[in-house]
Structure formats: C-alpha cells, structure tokens
Design goal:
Length: 500
C-alpha cells in the first residue's frame, strides 16, 4: 500500500519550523526498502530553541498558564488529545505501519493505547488536585506540615522506534499531567507519527511550547537535549549502552533520569501446562512487534520432561505465522526496522550456529519475500549459557530454548543475566508461580501469559534494564517535585536563645 507521507518540520513553540541547518533524514519503508519521504534533522541550535520555548511556557504568566494550573485544567487537554487521536486513528495507523514495518493489526492496538494512556493520565492529573497540601503528621503540636506536588520543570523525553507514538505517549502524558513542559526527541528510525502528534497539539489548542517535538540523530539532537542546563529531567527508553551515556551526561548536572533499557527476559514453562496454550504464549512473547521489544521473553526455560514435545509444538505454531507486507490482512510478522538491524540479527543467528547451537526453525529470509528486512521467526536449541545469543539482547524474532530439571535451577538460570526487565512463568500450580515470581529479579512478572501491558500498572526494570517506573500512579511521580511545607502555628516564642 502506498500513500503520501506528510512533509513536516520541527514542532517548536506551537509552530512548524525548518531546522536551522535545513538537513533532512530519509524515511525508508522497511517492507520495501524504498525511500518514501523524509523528516527534519535537528541539531544543538534547534534543541536550544525548543528548550527555550519549553522554559518560556513553564514560566508564562508566573506558571498560571500551565505549570501552576489545576490538574483538572491540564486533564481537559489530555482528554482532547485522546479524542483527536481516536478521530484520526486510521491516519496514524497507516503512517506508523509504513514507517515501522509493524503489522497493521498491532499498530491499530498501539494507537488505541495512545488514546487510553492519555485518558488515564488525565485522571491522574485530576487526582493530583486532591493530593495537594497532603498533611504530614508530626510529633510536635507546635508545627503543622503538608506536602506540595509540583512539576519538576522542563523535561527531555527520548523515545524508541519499536512503539513510536505509544512509548512517546508513555512519557508525554504523565509529564503534561504533572504540569511539566517537554521536548520530545523520537528515534530517527520512526518519527513520522510523533511529528504528526504536533498537529494534534495545535488542533486541541495546547499552549505553545508546552510540548516541542524534534526529530533528528542521537548525537546531533538527543545528546544536546540530555546535557542542556535548562532541562530539569530526562526520561529515556532505548538500549542499555545508550542509557549509560545518557546517565553519564545527566550526572554532570546532577540531573534526574528515568531509564527503561534493554532486556533478555526469561519465560519458564513447567511440566504441568497445557502445551498448546503455553506454546502460543511463548511465541507471542518473543515474536510480537516483529521480535523488537525490550521485554521479549526470548530465553525459554522448559522442564526437561516435556522439552522435546514442547519444542515440537513451538515449531508447528511458528510455521503457521503469516509473514508478509504489514498491510496484508492477517499479517503477524513484518520486517525488522532497518538494514542495520537485519544484519545484526542475522549475525547473531550465524554466530549461534558456529558456536554449536541448532536452528530448529527459521533463521533465514522468507523465500517468498525478496525485498524488505524480513527474517523468519527463529527457534534456537542446544543452547549453552555462555553463548552470545543467550546472553545478549538480539531485538529480533529469535527465541532461545534451554532445559531445566528443578524449580531452583529454573530460577537460577532465569536470574543469570545482567538484565532485569520482565519474566514469565507458566504452571497450573499457583503456589509455585508465587514462589518463582518472588524469586525473579525483574520489574514485571507475567503468570501464565507474556507481554500484556496496561497503562494502569507500573513499568520498568532492575539491573542493566534501568530504574524508575513509568505508567500507573507511579508514572506521574517521575515528573513531580515533592515539597515539604512546615509552619509554626504557635504564638509562643521559640525560646532557644535568651531574649535581648
């Protein structure tokens, strides 16, 4: 399917502005490898303009235009944004499918979630009003204390390409709900719908400068945003390697960061499961989003007594996955995002074979697709824990399988990783599920399922998967400064010093 990609500029202070250096980045359709448009490429000077606009919006009218308004006032904008995105859903779905290569049906769910997330944080903004002047009980009657929750200030938001508009919204919605102003830097590999979001902001009358959107390369736009002295906080989702650089740069100014980074998540399947139900969840947990998901349960640990039969079921399920142009009806696996990502994944598969692993399914380009960055869903067996493909994040449709003999061994293998984003456990024994859940060193555990994600529940990891939590009531806390206010309510002198 072909249709024109809107040609946008940078969205700064409520206006579309050409990048100062007038550079643009080509948009490559990953399903066809064709150039279908371009996006503006911001640099440090454009970042300066966007941060200045955000700071001006934060302080305008002593904050009464945005930062110091009621949560209910900001909620009206978030609800209007949710309604406008729903109204233009078809437009967003088509653009994101072409830009990212994700199956159309997946993108449709993502855009629905953009509206749901905006609605949810509208409610959190309203709830914020009831939490203001929250009383703090003190041991001395002479003093009275309460807490104010105020916006942390101008925030820099850096979002990834695998859920382009949705993961941007995970940051935008709570930041705006809290009263912050923001500069969003989406990934240069998928920025189209984020830029289109600027038009939504104008259509709902969002005050100029409250949200600014800069597409561009990481070193040219992302790095200056992170290090900018007028940016009060950074929220970043991306690779662990880049997250370390973000944290190091922010540390120079003691700037708070929220990091949602990579993963190598385990999925543990015990012997007492319905094998077909567990098999479908296992492939969904790894091959959803074309395998490009930080929480992918890509390390399958299966009890040795059912391993052979379970792998056989996995292969049969996997062979039925429809791999096609993402616009085709029933597509369940599209191309990966770019040639660079394609080459990286294929190298992981090749290295695994050279290290002695067995490719039980997939591992190649689909024969019927000569163009596009397509990789068959791949199942790798005969794994050792030292193998690169077992230890490193592949970020593609590759599922690695290893057996275990006991609950303790399963937990030890699951936790034997530098990552700690998510995990899944499958068993009909719910007491066992509870024991394993408590023992897993991760930020999220799925029991008898994999990958359900709701904006109502906290999201984030431990270890090299990052820190801080997005979503839920915890998500808005990232963007608030908690201020203690304590008053002396007595008419008596303090009496510590002798009066003159």
């Amino acid at each position: 399917m072909a249709f024109p990609i809107p040609s946008r500029q940078l969205f700064i202070d409520g206006e579309w502005r050409e990048p100062i250096k007038r550079n643009r980045i080509p948009i490559i359709n990953p399903a066809t490898e064709e150039t279908v448009g371009d996006i503006p490429a911001a640099n440090a000077e454009d970042v300066e303009a966007a941060v200045s606009a955000a700071r001006k919006a934060l302080k305008r009218n002593k904050g009464r235009d945005w930062a110091a308004t009621s949560g209910a006032h900001r909620a009206r904008y978030l609800r209007a944004i949710a309604a406008k995105v729903s109204e233009r859903k078809d437009h967003f779905v088509k653009l994101e499918t072409m830009d990212s290569g994700k199956p159309l049906d997946e993108v449709a769910l993502d855009i629905d979630d953009v509206s749901t997330c905006s609605e949810y944080f509208a409610g959190q903004a309203e709830a914020l009003d009831d939490k203001q002047k929250y009383p703090v009980k003190l041991p001395m009657d002479r003093f009275k204390s309460h807490v104010l929750r105020q916006p942390i200030g101008v925030v820099g938001l850096i979002s990834p390409w695998n859920y382009p508009l949705l993961m941007a919204t995970w940051k935008i919605a709570p930041a705006l709900a809290a009263g912050c102003t923001a500069v969003l830097k989406p990934s240069e590999l998928a920025s189209v719908t984020c830029l289109e979001f600027g038009e939504v902001c104008n259509e709902v009358g969002l005050p100029p400068g409250v949200l600014n959107i800069l597409s561009g390369l990481g070193p040219d736009a992302g790095a200056p945003l992170v290090s900018h002295p007028d940016v009060d906080k950074i929220a970043f989702t991306g690779s662990s390697a880049t997250g370390s650089k973000v944290m190091g740069s922010a540390a120079q100014l003691v700037k708070p960061v929220t990091l949602e980074l990579g993963g190598k998540s385990p999925i543990i399947v015990f012997e007492d499961n319905d094998l077909d139900i567990a098999a479908e969840w296992a492939i969904f947990g790894c091959f959803w989003t074309n395998g490009q998901i930080c929480s992918a349960t890509s390390r399958l640990l299966v009890h040795e007594s059912i391993a052979a039969e379970f792998v056989d079921r996995l292969v049969k399920w996997t062979e039925k996955i429809k791999i096609s142009d993402p616009f085709e009806e029933g597509c369940r696996l599209g191309p990966v995002i770019s040639k660079g990502q394609y080459d990286k994944i294929m190298k992981y598969i090749s290295t695994a074979k050279s290290e002695g692993a067995t490719i039980s399914c997939g591992g190649s380009r689909p024969e019927h697709l000569k163009k596009g960055y397509y990789i068959e869903p791949t199942i790798v067996t005969d794994i050792s824990t030292s193998m690169q493909i077992w230890r490193e994040e592949v970020f593609g449709p590759v599922l690695c399988v290893k057996t275990f003999s006991s609950e303790d061994e399963a937990i030890e293998l699951a936790n034997d990783t530098e990552y700690g984003l998510a995990a899944a456990v499958f068993s009909k024994d719910l007491d066992r599920c509870e024991r394993v859940t408590k023992a897993l060193e991760v930020g999220a555990v799925w029991v008898n399922c994999s990958q359900p994600c709701f904006c109502h529940a906290p999201w984030g990891g431990v270890k090299r998967s990052g820190f801080g939590r997005e979503l839920g009531e915890w998500g808005i806390e990232n963007y608030l400064n908690i201020k203690q206010v304590t008053s002396d309510i007595s008419d008596e002198p303090w009496g510590w010093y002798k009066s003159p």
